[in-house]
Amino acid sequence: MSDLETLRHTLPMVGTEPSILDDTSIAHVVAHGHRILSRRTVPGLRVELEETPDALIGQLTVEAGATIAQPVHLCFGLTDPTGVQQITIEVQLQEGAQARILSHCLFPVAQAAQHRMQAVMTIGPGASLTYTEGHYHGLHGGMQVLPHATITVGQGARYFSDFSLLSGSVGHLDIDYRVDVEEDGLAELSAKILAHKTDRITLKEAVVLRGERARSLIRSRVVLEDEARAEITGITEAHAAGARGHVDCMEVVQGRAQACAIPIVKVCHPGAKVTHEAAIGSVDKQALETLMARGLSPEQAVELIVSGILR
Predict the structure, then answer these.
(1) How far apart are the C-alpha atoms of 106 and 20, rounded to whole Å?
(2) Of 112, 144, 263, 283, which sits most exposed with the smallest number of CB within 10 A?
(3) Are strands 128-136 and 158-165 parallel, antiparallel or unpaired?
């Protein structure tokens, strides 16, 4: 099976049908390592990627006022047990543009492999970007994934991100996102991760509300089993009148797992407000007993509660 076919067959693991790669109305890029296997663009969208021995380097631009009707699919992965993939990309939504990007990171047989992403995203005034990132790292726990991004949300712009890793092993995951939000802008960041065995997670999401009436939400849901470990840091700073932010972290630990939640809030203007809540613990005992009273086994009840948390 070719590298392209392997990645196509892995797409359902992140909830995506392989047929999207055949649809001429849907833009996509598929890359194995530092080789581009398939690509398609649509009007209003420019994708410029360069293959180099050490990285894929490029820019994705949505032109001013353009609305990309279908999600843009970026499929990055490795089909070998070992290897390195480095992505360096600049994403720019010009003024008034609207787009949805679905990023699929697929490493189905990874045993000792690494994926790094360095992204700079600029959401222009009045523009809107929804960035959904789905990961599958295989079953061996040998994947190291380090996505780092700096995002600027312009005046009146909107940025929504959703990271999920809900099947297979995590391996080692190190996320570091920083978002700056200007006047009347909005940023919402969501992360949902299920970890087990000896998985290791470091998740750091920081939002700086620089403009008046800027708003943000950081929401993380992490479930840890076996001997998994996680450190979750959510940071929000508010620097202007009317700025509002909230940090919401929840971790569920089972077995010998360990979790650490670090919500950091900072307010530098008397007219701004930031709130936070963090919770770490086991599965809710009352909910567990209720489900078992309805005929579910303890294992089924825990699975149902966990799926609800990660929904």
Answers:
(1) 16
(2) 112
(3) parallel
Contact present, 134 and 162 (Cβ < 8 Å): no
Is the pLDDT at 238 greater than 80? The verdict is yes
- Conformational region of residue 15, where left means phi above 0, alpha means psi within -120 to 50, and beta covers everything else: left
Mean pLDDT, rounded, for 171-192:
98
Stretch (H or E) spanning 199: none
Q: Are 44 and 90 in contact (CB under 8 A)?
A: no
The letter for the amino acid at 36 is I
7 within 8 A of 79, measured Cβ to Cβ: yes
Q: Which two tokens stand for residue 154?
A: 């312009």
Characterize the bridge pairing of strands 35-40 and 28-32. antiparallel
The pair of three-digit structure tokens given for residue 11, joined into one six-digit string: 């797409």
Cα 213 to Cα 156: distance, rounded to the nearest angstrom = 10
| DSSP one-letter code for 95 | T
